[in-house]
């Protein structure tokens, strides 16, 4: 987790030219000049100022705005991560106050999206493959058979990065990336070993402190009270915790009498009074309506359902095939039908038509939320819903990229199965990136950008002034 954090800070610091985080600068250019490499990036002195020509990874101010704007518009579901928008400062075009988990989320999910419309193709492809590698190596479930292929891919990716980034970029943390696959083979998935759960629980424990003079005692007393309350609730019937309405969980109906009672309620039908909610908790997710989503800092209205559909090649096809098909949409209504003995929640959704769903060449699953379809079948059972969220595609404002919510714990306390984002592996994405026939914005042997001239200016007079301030006057030395 710390390797990923340090690598991300090096990448984003170099792209946005963040002071103290960038691996490109005056000394890096001087070192390359001494080594006789990339002479086209040599320093250009103009009076008392020094100009660093734009390298292949140097972003123009317009591109920096695009990247920061893409991150500033991200809204994630509840419990997915912290609010990414608070970490982006559009005035300075920088990212600040990043925690380790923030770097983890941005590196694996949002950075590949944010750079889709900027940077030369080869540089963008190398950074994207590095992000996909971390996503694969940090998965909750890893197939041991793909680990050798991942090892080959990361070696190639680092070699591609060496073609464009300066040697100062490749410190010990970037080197340690090569050993992550071997570490996974020996120790298992990183998901079972990292400290994110412990750090999140430490935040809960810090919230127990009411008196700063006795922090340990506050934590112990609050913890004991919660344990006692949870112990008592196990022996009380029909007790439900305060919060959002939750779906009722029924035991397996093995008793014939209970089946008859349930059939009786279904036969009489639901009550004429329908409960409407703006938020609902079920399947371990918290869902919002689109109206509530617009008021919130989170995005909880995205929904997907996996349904079996009939596929035919033409009207004359007499052998239709049935296959599972994913539908994506946005929740507009949350209704709960009361059957006296139990309640059934349903979601009224605005579904995206099949023509508005596609997989692009880079392996991103995209939807066009304006293409509405299936208007005659808007409702699904809430128990069938899984949560997704949508990120605006900076490459095309018409399309949105689909990301799946985190793995969650359902009401019974059992962890649900892991959800693979876009159901695509890192290896498949890398193959797509290598096989793309795209127009190269920079030649194979060129490391300078010709599409803009917004390099880095260094004022040498500032450096001289700093040296003069450090000098101590002779009189003060005698007094000492």
UniProtKB/TrEMBL annotation:
InterPro entries: DUF4216 (IPR025312), DUF4218 (IPR025452). Residues 338-402 form the DUF4216 domain. Residues 137-241 form the DUF4218 domain. It holds the Pfam family DUF4218. This is Transposase. It comes from Pisum sativum (Garden pea).
